[in-house]
Write a structure and sequence with these properties.
Number of strands: 2
Order of helices and strands: HHHHHHEEHHHHHHHHHHH
Strand content: under 5%
Largest sheet: 2 strands, antiparallel
Helix content: 55-70%
Distance between the termini: 15 Å
Strand order of the largest sheet: 1-2
CATH architecture: Orthogonal Bundle
Number of domains: 1
CATH topology: Farnesyl Diphosphate Synthase
Length: 323
């Protein structure tokens, strides 16, 4: 299966310019902002959303110049959500490095998230691109509402599959869909609707794959499942699917974990085993594959090219994630 670098090959030259474009947008002559930006720049991720936006802008081989700043904006909106989520969750590490709230403070992290987002919006205003402004602000609003709905859920174990689908559509798929839609508008506007559909369905598959990793990825030191979601009492699709078929004893172990403010590694590993035994992982994989199939169907009318192949390969990459 092609790796991310192979997927990015058709737009590599432009993608490599995205980080510099991002930091151009958010530069400020303020010491704490410069220090925070330097730290964030060192935590560079996979640039997955800019990759999809630049690919979508190239499906007819005529990307517009504005695709590059739009790609930078898509990553800044994502980075805003990462900074805010880390602060809300009091996370101290991301990709093995300290989060902004751990390195500075929760106040600085919240304000930096606000700063990143406002600068991204200011860039769209500078471009005079009202449609991009509408699409990205709508996605940001959906992401925020999704987080608020999750925080307002008092009984975590009553979280249904429908609730889960609404949540990941808002928190993950909305921005991936927006990136693909805006890419199409910056190079292939007749494919705006299918690119939006592709991005949203891929975003759903992406989040399911991410949630599965919490049950399947192993800590390097302990060799046990990471279980961060379970540790934080977050209910995702594998657990939702497994709950109805658990025995009374198995459900009791799950209830005990969620009642424990600081669950042990052993109890987390036990619940991971229960969810696996009850078919939760297999169900989640099938659902992720179904969303990926819907995303692939949205590519039906896209002209054959290296770019179209990269979009299709990105689906396989998402489903086969290891980290």
């Amino acid at each position: 299966m092609p790796g991310l670098r192979e997927i990015q090959a058709p737009i590599r030259d432009r993608l490599e310019r995205v980080p510099d474009e991002m930091w151009r947008i958010v530069q400020a002559d303020v010491d704490i902002v410069q220090a925070a930006n330097a730290h964030l720049r060192g935590m560079r991720g996979k640039l997955f959303r800019p990759t999809l936006l630049l690919l979508a802008s190239s499906v007819e081989g005529t990307p517009e110049d504005r695709a590059l700043p739009l790609a930078a904006v898509s990553e800044l909106v994502h980075l805003t959500s990462v900074v805010h989520d880390d602060s809300v969750d009091h996370s101290v590490l991301r990709r093995g490095q300290p989060t902004l709230n751990a390195l500075f403070s929760h106040q600085v992290a919240v304000l930096m998230g606000d700063f990143l987002f406002s600068k991204a919006i200011a860039e769209l205003v500078r471009l005079g691109d009202l449609e991009a402004l509408r699409v990205f602000t709508q996605a940001s609003n959906e992401m925020t509402l999704g987080e608020l709905r999750q925080l307002a859920s008092f009984d975590a174990l009553s979280f249904s599959e429908a609730d889960y689908q609404r949540l990941i559509l808002a928190k993950t798929a909305s921005l991936v869909g927006a990136a693909c839609e805006m890419g199409a508008l910056a190079g292939a506007p007749r494919f705006r609707a299918p690119m939006r559909q592709f991005g949203e369905r891929m975003g759903m598959a992406f989040q399911v794959a991410d949630d599965l990793l919490d049950y399947t990825a192993q800590e390097e030191v302990t060799g046990k499942p990471t279980g961060l979601d379970l540790r934080e009492h977050k209910v995702t699709l594998p657990l939702i699917a497994a709950l109805p078929v658990m025995s009374r004893a198995q459900r009791g172990r799950v209830d005990a974990l969620f009642a424990d403010p600081v669950p042990s590694d052993e109890s987390i590993a036990e619940v991971v085993g229960i969810v696996t035994e009850c078919g939760g992982l297999d169900y989640a994989r099938r659902q992720g594959e179904a969303w990926a199939a819907q995303a692939d169907e949205a590519l039906t009318d896209i002209p054959p090219s290296d770019v179209r192949q990269s979009l299709a390969d990105a689906l396989a990459f998402v489903l086969d994630r290891r980290a």
